[in-house]
Amino acid sequence: MTDQVTTRTDAQTDLQHEAARLGALPAAPLAMPRQRLEHVPLRTRLARLRALIAPRADA
Amino acid sequence: MADPRPYGARGAALGASLGLAAGAFVLFFAQRQTGGLWVEFARSLLILMATFWLAWGAAQALLGLWPGSGATPRRAEPKGRCAILVPVHEEDPRATFARIAAMDAALAETAQAGQFDFAILSDTRSPSGAAREASWYLRLLRDRDAQGRIFYRRRSSNAGRKAGNIEDFLKTSGAAYEFALILDADSLMSAETIIEMTRRMAGEPRLGLLQSLPGVIRAGSVFGRAMQFSAALYSPVFARGVARLQGETGPFWGHNAMVRVRAFAESCALPDLSGPPPFGGHILSHDYVEAALLARAGWIVRLDPDLTGSYEEGPENILAHAKRDRRWCQGNLQHARLLAAPGLLPWSRFVFLQGILAYVSSLFWLGFLATSILAPSLRVAPDYFPLPGWSFPVMPPNETARTAGLIIGVLGLLILPKLLIAVQAIRSGRAAGFGGPVRLLTSTLVEIALSSITAPIFLMFQTRSVLQVLSGRDGGWPAAARGEGRLGLFESWQASRWITVAGLAGLAAAWKLSPELTPWLLPVAGPMIAAPLVIWITSLPCRIPFAVPSETAPDPILARQESIGASWASLTDADPAPSHPEPLHA
């Protein structure tokens, strides 16, 4: 029984590997820049500004 | 071709809808009973919102009926390649891949055969589902002799769901294609339509997305065939109205649409929204947002309702429809987060608002019914002589007359457009596809009766969906319910007994608090009480002759799919991959 299950699982895995090999998509990458849909909250803007200024203040 | 400045159509539709809604408010409020001012104001406000939504739908139909078909779209021969994308998630691979085989075989017979590749983009997670897909893919590949033309990829993670699936493809292979036709697992399109879409895309370099109007096919149940008839008869007219309203800021319905790959890649990588679902996280109804983002980037998004040869399958019973609608409800309500998104065109924001209203309007109707039942108990005794020195009595307005007026108004806005569309179909000769004028009119009347019975049940399901989303419950990403939709009576009872209880409670409250309203509530409460029966009966095989053009004059692509499906029917899921490599020429 266990052998039968193992054999079937192996066969399924083989089929999936075969499908992945034969079905491989063409390699032609394209950039997709993430879009902005939310306004940046004031608190975040202030934090960014602070981070920008802080190193200069240290210097 | 879309009017680039559809301000006249928008002004007319908005003006008429607002005018009717304001009229309903004034009439209702002016006729208010003495006392209970705030209750009456709330009722009038609810009727204003609900009337606006109904009038808006009717206005779209009337715009669609308006004569004139617009300019002929520009065409050119495309120079680049087109990828036909089929995202799948726990679908039946035998049925889905038979559709792909049919489209591939149809395209192979055209002069443009070499321009198209198919990509099956799997998000299936279950090991058994993945194994079936792999097995049927190998069958498809060998039958169609399609290595290097029909691709199959299964993602290791479902990030971004369907939108993320397409994004993943574009990031991997997008540069190889000029256009991508986005399909659903149940989509089917004729080769002529696909080629025509590439020509229209090539003819208008600013066109970022072209949406076709999918017709519903292969319905078998009472509910499914009524939906199929409704989609075949009314949808082309409503779609023409939508196209006239939206112009170059058109809709994207998520499938059976072609995109310009560069435009889509530049504009449509969706971010996750801050916060948890249902309002934060992954954007569920991504298609509307992608259309808005393309428009924000200056691309034309267009719906061409004349593009026939585009098909999908619909839900076969009310429960399957309600399940899909739960997902759409969450997606549309989530758009509330995007109403103020930076840079969107005003019309895109309005489209979001329209989607939200489509679901929230169910609360308006239910709120109106509840306040109408409660109103008499909050009312003070009528004052027949409210004006000092006026010797004639002022009679309180008749609630029954007001309710009757309301029902007539609602039915007018809902039914009149359908009847006008049927009459136009008879006058234009379109009725032939529906079995002739008599059969068309009979089917229309039966569809109207059926949709009137199912409307209160959908109202309840929709209200529950809205309340679930508002209370923060995420619907997740269930697999689509396809195929035969026959339900058992017990299953129907289990899924809808709460609607029966709500109907009985509403009717009992009306009987106790405002008995004169009880008969007027019956058209709503009756179907609610009988919901399990209605759901069960409408899921059974249909004996009503709802004739539709896709059956009276079927597109050859349907026969091709049937033939391939039949040849695969005898194969078992365990071993569909052939031991011989002979290709099948369907």
From TrEMBL, chain A:
Name under which the protein is recorded: Uncharacterized protein
Organism: Limimaricola variabilis
Automatic annotation (TrEMBL), chain B:
Keywords carried by this UniProt record: Cell inner membrane, Cell membrane, Glycosyltransferase, Membrane, Transferase, Transmembrane, Transmembrane helix
Xref: NCBIfam families: PRK05454.2-1 (NF003958), PRK05454.2-2 (NF003959), PRK05454.2-5 (NF003962)
Family: Belongs to the glycosyltransferase 2 family. OpgH subfamily.
Signal peptide span: none
Pathway where it operates: Glycan metabolism; osmoregulated periplasmic glucan (OPG) biosynthesis
Membrane-spanning segments: 12-30, 42-66, 356-381, 401-426, 438-461
Location relative to the cell: Cell inner membrane
Chief place where the protein resides: membrane
Protein name: Glucans biosynthesis glucosyltransferase H
GO molecular function, one term: glycosyltransferase activity
A Pfam family hit: Glyco_trans_2_3
Domain Glycosyltransferase 2-like: 181-371
PANTHER family hit by this protein: CELLULOSE SYNTHASE CATALYTIC SUBUNIT A [UDP-FORMING], GLUCANS BIOSYNTHESIS GLUCOSYLTRANSFERASE H
Topology within the bilayer: Multi-pass membrane protein
InterPro entries, per database record: Glyco_trans_2-like, Glycosyltr_2/OpgH_subfam, Nucleotide-diphossugar_trans
Provenance organism: Limimaricola variabilis
